[in-house]
Amino acid sequence: MRSLYVLIAGCLMNAARGEAGLHRVPQDVPRITDALAASVDGDVISVSPGTYSPSVNGETFPLEILHDVTLCGAGPGVSILDAEGTASVLILKGASPRISGFTITGGRSSQGGGFVVWDNTAPEIDHNLVLMNGVSNVGSGAFIAEGATPHLHHNVFWGNFDLDPPSGGDPHTLQFYNAGGVVEHNVIGQGDSNGLHVNTSTVVIRNNIFFENGIEGVRGRGICAVNGARPVIAHNLFFGNVRAALLVAPSGGDISAAEANNLSGDDGIYGNLDLDPVFVDAPAMNWQLASNSPAIDAGDPSSPFDPDGTRADVGPFYYPHNTSGLDDTSARERLSSAPNPFRGSTSLGFRLDRAERVTLTIHDAAGRLVTRLVDQVLEPGLHTATWNASSPLEAQVAPGVYFARLRVGNNVRVKPLVFAR
Q1: Helices and strands of the chain, counted as H and E runs
Q2: Do residues 139 and 113 touch, judged by C-beta distance below 8 A?
Q3: Contact call for residues 39 and 45 (beta carbons, < 8 A)
Q4: Displacement of CA 127 from its chain's centroid (Å)
Q5: Cβ-based burial of 40 (10 A; exposed 0-12, middle 13-18, buried ≥19)
Q6: Domain boundary pick from 228, 255, 289
Q7: 95 vs 113: CA distance, rounded Å
Q8: Statement to judge: residues 244 and 342 lie in one domain
Q9: CATH number of the domain that 189 lies in?
Q10: Rounded to the nearest 10 degrees, how much is the dihedral formed by the CA atoms of 227, 229, 234, 235?
Q11: Percent residues over pLDDT 70 in the chain
Q12: In principle, which of 161, 193, 251, 412 could form an S-S bond with 309, CB 3.0–4.6 Å?
């Protein structure tokens, strides 16, 4: 849910400010197919909760993204794109589209079961669940074609598979063919082959979890880099991949993350771990990090901090640190807000167990400061502050998702707020 708030804000805020055309499905048009046909560069297509498939609402797959549009769902498990075995789910051909907030499932094809990123396309693909798609050739979750440079972040690729295992094909979950881009803060797990396959050195792979990929006794690594490719592979976590964590040149064979880190001091492979990520409940598709997860604070130190102000965690879901100086004896005494969502104003509450320097600020989805509510030393006890987002002083505040940021001493808490004027 923490990631969901961010994706909704990023998808919809430009449209709310009148900076893009907005097509709502199904309120304005009945199908995503129709919205894509009517869209031009810069438009936002907002997809309401529901299942969009051939049998449910007559969608036609693959959904072809031909323009630089933002296709925005209400969140994984909420807005579901299901090709029902008819084709790939998405084909991206626009120069730089964005796909965010969906379950992408039911794809069946020779390549790119979940989605295909076409030549020379540079999309942003984030906050999606790419689930149980199948191919017979390449890229069961996604195929990235020559010259493409996608930014894939905060997604879960799970259970994508080979349509014809006896044929001897080897379709990897994420497959890059002479392509570049960035792959960061994803879970890539329980695919039939390698989690990620790359044949060039122009991909940055960092802060991902590669979990239980492969078929026992047959195949499966976390990352396979071939043809002499030496991409940046930094601060990823590998666990339970059938054959090995990695195959990278010039190791000459399957190696662990620790062995890969030690191949060379200047090869861009560093900080990787061979450890169980300790998900809350992976079989129930809950990939949140448990409190004892080694992925917490293990991300690349050069990555942006997590919303709670701490070092980046590995994977798509950050673990919120508790804050010393705040009384945590009950849920009521943590940073709270009411109402939320809100239309005019909302009250924020917190309790201190000792006198502390406190700042309470409101930020937009890009992290920009909107307003400062508190900045002083406060005594122990319960404290409240009100943010009136519809006041004349806040006239530039558009409806959307914002974040209250409470700093107590050197510790930080963050609370998402939904302004629905």
Answers
A1: 4, 40
A2: yes
A3: yes
A4: 3
A5: exposed
A6: 289
A7: 21
A8: no
A9: 2.160.20
A10: -10
A11: 90
A12: 412
pLDDT 10s digits, 167-201: 777 899 999 999 999 999 999 999 999 999 999 99
Whole-angstrom CA distances from 358 to 122, 243, 287, 288, 351 are 42, 51, 33, 29, 11
10 Å CB burial of residue 178 (0-12, 13-18, 19+) is middle
The strand pairing partners of 419, in sequence order, are: 342, 400
Asked whether the CA dihedral 198, 201, 205, 209 is positive or negative, the reply is positive
For the sheet with 161-162, list strands across it: 108-111, 134-138, 161-162
Q: For 370-378, what is the mean pLDDT?
A: 92
Q: How far apart are CA 306 and CA 309, in angstroms?
A: 5
Measured CA distances, 260 to 34, 48, 250 (Å) = 48, 44, 10
CATH number, domain containing residue 398? 2.60.40.1930
Domain assignment of residue 179, yes or no? yes
CB 313 within 8 A of CB 305: no
* pLDDT tens by residue, 271-299: 999 999 999 999 989 999 998 999 999 99
Please provide the DSSP assignment of 307-369 as one string. TTSSPPPSSSSPPPPP-TTB--SSGGGSSEEESSSBSSEEEEEEEESS-EEEEEEEE-TT--E
Q: Is the peptide bond before 62 cis (omega within 30 degrees of 0)?
A: yes
CB atoms within 10 A of CB 16: 16
Nearest to 214 by CA among 181, 184, 186, 247: 247
Residue type at position 65? I
Number of domains in the chain: 2
Same domain, 336 and 283: no
Task: Indicate the helix (H) or strand (E) that contains 9.
Answer: helix 2-16
> With the CA atoms of 418, 182, 70 and 173 taken in that order, what torsion angle do they form, in degrees rounded to the nearest 10?
-100
Where does a domain end: 289, 312, 345?
289
Cα torsion at 99, 105, 109, 115 (round to 10°)? 10
- Kindly state the helix (H) or strand (E) to which residue 176 belongs, with its residue range: strand 174-176
Residue type, 212: E
pLDDT, tens only, 48-99: 999 999 999 999 999 999 999 999 998 898 899 999 999 999 999 989 999 9
* Same domain, residue pair 284 and 378: no
Q: Domain containing 354: what range?
A: 331-419
Q: Are residues 272 and 355 in the same domain?
A: no
State pTM to two decimals: 0.78
